[in-house]
Amino acid sequence: MKSQFLGLYSREILRTFRNPLVLLLTLVQPFMWLAFFGSAWQHVAQQVPSFGGVNYIAFLLPGVLSTSMLSVGMFGAMSTIQDKRFGFMKRILITPTTKEVIFLSKTLGSATRGLVQIPIMILAAALWGVNFTHVSALDWAAWAVMLFFLAMGFSSLFLAVTAPSTDWQTPAVLANFVTMPFMFASAALVPTPGFPSWMKLLSDLNPITYSALLGRSFVLGSAVPWNYLGIIVGFGIIGLGIGYFVSARWLRVE
Amino acid sequence: MASTDAIEIHDVSKRYGHGEHSVLALNHISLSIPKGTVFGLLGPNGAGKTTIIKILTGISPLTEGSASVAGFDVRRESLKVRARIGWVAAEVILDDDFSGWENLQLQARLQDLVDWEERANELLAYFELSDRKADRVSTYSTGMRKKLEIALALLHQPMVIFMDEPTIGLDVGTRRMLWDIVTGIHREFGVTVLLTTHYIEEADALCDRIAIIDQGKIIADGTPQELKARVKADIVELTLSDGTDAEAIGRLPGVQECRSQGTGWILRVDSSEEFLPRLLSAVPADRLRRISVEKPSLETVFLQLTGRRMAQAESIRDIRKFYQQMKRLRL
């Protein structure tokens, strides 16, 4: 089982690096959020009191990193559909490899790919004048762990949705459909206190909110809500459990 | 299970879907495939050949009956079965972004092998791929890709290799090469090969034993020679000018059966060598617009058993109907 996991996990990671364009776009996409969205809203944010007069790029960075983990999760699930359509899933399953191992290698592969974005984004934000000197080693580690669990949770849940199917259209449409509520009904881009009550409720149920707020506390040097780390780790573990259960029973090969 | 059998299929049925829209893909089939044979499942598209492979490789569960591969039950001991089989797909399935060697490495990990490198190098040398092993598979020719796929299937020294329509879509040259490979690996590695094909000449050229399958049932099995010996007749097809008395031809000595098909006639005769002189003396030569003679072949076996030629069994209408049904069932 260890050897099979290693084989499939390294396939997931290596595949990203084998296609330079995919790698470049994966890295540049969140970067563009900072560049375009961040720059455009910088002056607005500074005039709105609820932003607290902070550098908007610093405010935005943890939110964009969090939503990137959502995209990473979706991409992992879509690549599973590809593997089924090209017959690769069948090739894997006509070896003593279990469906559970396939699921674990996919979801952990996606989560690891998500981590690659973090240093690039931090570097980009630093170039935009965000100051990270007060962020301690513990903060950095906690932030990375949290993002890993967030990516793992999303990736697992998307895999649970795509496991029983070979249809590529529905997951693609679904991915587009859920991006907007996950991104906007959260603390990723703006402070939530001004939200209407129904949106506030969605935001409170959205793991991206907790991830963005915790990350923001590290960047802005404010009081750290450590319990949010527990929420995200819990989300990751529950997501993993659901994905594992669904994949083991209903992962379809073709 | 007898220890000499690599594959044992006992009264297996497979139904896709439920209720009135369900399709019975396999209808109570039984088969024993001895170790060390090249066994062919021959039949038209949609006959159920691929379904048999899916059941034996653990991809699809059987509905009724039991089956074992390498001595292990395909349902209860699926992982043990999968550690002892290799699979070559109809379409080549490889990781194009990886090198030949990396594809072998992944296969070794999936098969949980240690010390596989020497075996991998031997296989690469056997398939003449050694000097290209570091190149990405996307740069390989079709023939090279097919060879690499077979090398992957052989890496863990399997007892049985499944080849599903191994030469479909290949040009004549590559097909010949593949035939040589199948014969070669069988001789060199002593592996049992179960292949499906709807090419009659392929089954005849490659297989020690053949099962002819049609509409989910095995209608005959044996060596190609045994099967051909069942057809104790040559087939003569005639196209005659209008107004010729075909009934009279049917009454000539040595004619077992005479029936019309389209614009012509199909006759089963004891011996075409004896029949043709009789025919030419009974019918003026200018009345005969076309004559073709067919000695016993697997095609005539299929014709005798089903009343249809293999190509007719694959008529467009049937295939369309089959796919529509499959689509409805979302299979």
How would you describe what is shown here?
The complex is a heterodimer of chains A (254) and B (331). Chain A is elongated and about 60 Å long. Chain A has one domain. Chain A is built from ten helices and no strands. Chain A has 254 residues and is mainly α. Chain B is α/β, with parallel strands linked by helices and 331 residues long. Chain B has three domains: 5-84 and 158-228, P-loop containing nucleotide triphosphate hydrolases (Rossmann fold, 3-Layer(aba) Sandwich), CATH 3.40.50; 100-154; 232-295, Lrp/AsnC effector binding domain/regulation of amino acid metabolism (RAM) domain (Alpha-Beta Plaits, 2-Layer Sandwich). Chain B has 13 helices and 14 strands. A six-stranded mixed β-sheet of chain B has the order 6-7-8-3-9-10, sandwiched between helices. A four-stranded antiparallel β-sheet of chain B has the order 2-1-4-5. In chain B, helix 3 packs parallel to helix 5 and helix 5 packs parallel to helix 6 (172-189). The two termini of chain B are 32 Å apart. The model of chain B has no long low-confidence stretch (mean pLDDT 88). Chain A binds chain B through residues 1, 3-4, 6-8, 11, 14-15, 18-19, 86-88, 90-98, 253-254, and chain B through 57-59, 79-80, 82-83, 85, 87, 89, 91, 93, 95, 97-98, 102, 105-113, 162.
